[in-house]
Amino acid sequence: MTYDPLSANPLAGNPLKTRADVEKAAHDVFNPLLPFFSEGRARVRLSAAAAHFDRIAADVEGFARPLWGLAPLAAGGGRFDHWALYREGLANGMDPEHPEYWGEVSSTDQRMVEMAAIGFTLKMVPHLTWEPLPERAKTNIAAYLKHIRRFDYADNNWKFFRILVDMGLEEVGVDFDRSLTERYLEELDGFYLGDGWYRDGNVRRIDHYIPFAMHFYGLIYARIAKGEDARAARYGERAAQFALDIRHWYDEDGGALAFGRSLTYRFACAGIWGALAFADLEALPWGEIKGQYLRHLRWWARHPIADRDGVLSVGYAYPNLLMSENYNSAGSPYWAMKAFLPLALPEGHPFWQAEETPAVTSKKPVPLRHPGMVMMHTPGNVVALSSGQQNYQMRFGAEKYAKFVYSSRYGFSVENDERAYRSACFDGMIGFSDDGRHYRVRESNEAALIAGDSLYGRWKPWHDVTVETWLVPANPWHVRVHRIETPRSLHATEGGFAIARADFDADTCKDSAGSALARSATDLSVVLDLTEGTKRAGRAHRAQPNTNLIAAKTIVPQLAGEIPPGTTVLITAAMALPAGGEADAALNSPPQPPDLARLEALFAQEAIEVSAMKVAERF
């Protein structure tokens, strides 16, 4: 029998159209975990693979993260047959005398993250978790949570975790030092940038943590916190502004922009839409919010995101440890259960009663100043031209934050060998080598600007090499202009979008001077050299397996050539579309190269600073 990897997906086959469908999905995602609960029910171990934190903390992840979906399920009247299991696990995990004790905290610790789900659960369903427990268990749980909240949390979205623990303690009548709560609420406000956008902590990092963490927790707080009307109203106002922008991170088929860290949390990206519903905030028409929410869940139902036993894998559209973070354990993907927050709402809520409406897309580019992006909607895809972000803290930070372009349909690729220049992907990126073996790419910017619907970045692959890059939308194409100043000869390779590659190379590829094209049964990807004069060599590059987030095997059209000492200008056009007439029409109508002098004049007159350094100085 041939194994069908999609058959293990717990969402596969679910139409995901109604509240009942979503309730079934919550059960189907959770149930494969049941065989992996420990004897004392306090730990869930799913794999021998490790994260940077200790093994017990990883087991606590597996135990706690499903509660993000199970608590709303029960709060909304849904049946869940395993609350006794969770009560036993909570009692044993926080009992210092039990063999499955979770261990003490003495500084910033992964357990702080997971206790947020427990605080949220105590707040939402105390009658199922807290009230049936014996007094000794209650005493232990209260002591554990009060102890853990005293330590400093990471300087980012983690600060909300103390808030959520405190909401749970308050609900069950446990006294605690509320000054610590207020301090973190004030510090979280310090991350606010404006227009609904936050940064995630102590660097200018603006990724999916803004919708599925900062706003998600803020909207939970707005709905269920006690006595905080002014702050709750502020969270709602910010989220309403944010919704107008973040809808452009989702394509018409439900795919989310693949960008940044922690993408293994998968349909947690539906969290922002579910949180708007939970907070009873009609930031967009209910039909649009519901459409964004359900289309996103359906997108994930079409991808092999689980192992053979139905357990969600580490990876994105398929199991893939290569793209993971050092803090991803086997239990990490279950933050996806955040998507089930609107199950707390009754069937009669306007969110569930609304008729789905299509995604709001725009033929014109949509500039988003705070993340330093220009969004383009193309068929079945949303493309982000990107500049202005930085991240040195995450594995593959350059690939996750510093490429020129990101996509919902084609994802992005991470490199698997920094000593193999000729086999690198370089999708959405230009790579330079001075020895034919090692290479450098953009990691951050010295300066980043947005003017109208175009972007600019100045960056240094080496201390003595400067690259200025302009990104210009030409939907469905985009154009990149690079001005390179180098004192020595370099070799450069620049890539377009990576598309899925069939076995036995059963795809059409065309290489020539100045262009490269890859055509599969489903997609077309092309890159053109618009530079005046000698053209770079085209290559349809068969990338290394498991480098791309969406497809395990890909082809990346590339342009490659020598860069002499001095100043060189390169102009590149790239485009990818679903195969068909629209793709062929676009292929026959490539964009014209932009006038560099006009671009420079535009940025001299209208540019807005979006660089990491300038923003960081504001705080």
UniProtKB/TrEMBL annotation:
Short name of one Pfam family: DUF2264
Occurrences of domain DUF2264 (ranges): 18-358, 365-582
Family matches, as InterPro entries: DUF2264_C, DUF2264_N, UCP014753
Domain of life, source organism: Bacteria
Protein name (Swiss-Prot/TrEMBL): DUF2264 domain-containing protein
Species in which this protein is naturally found: Nitratireductor thuwali
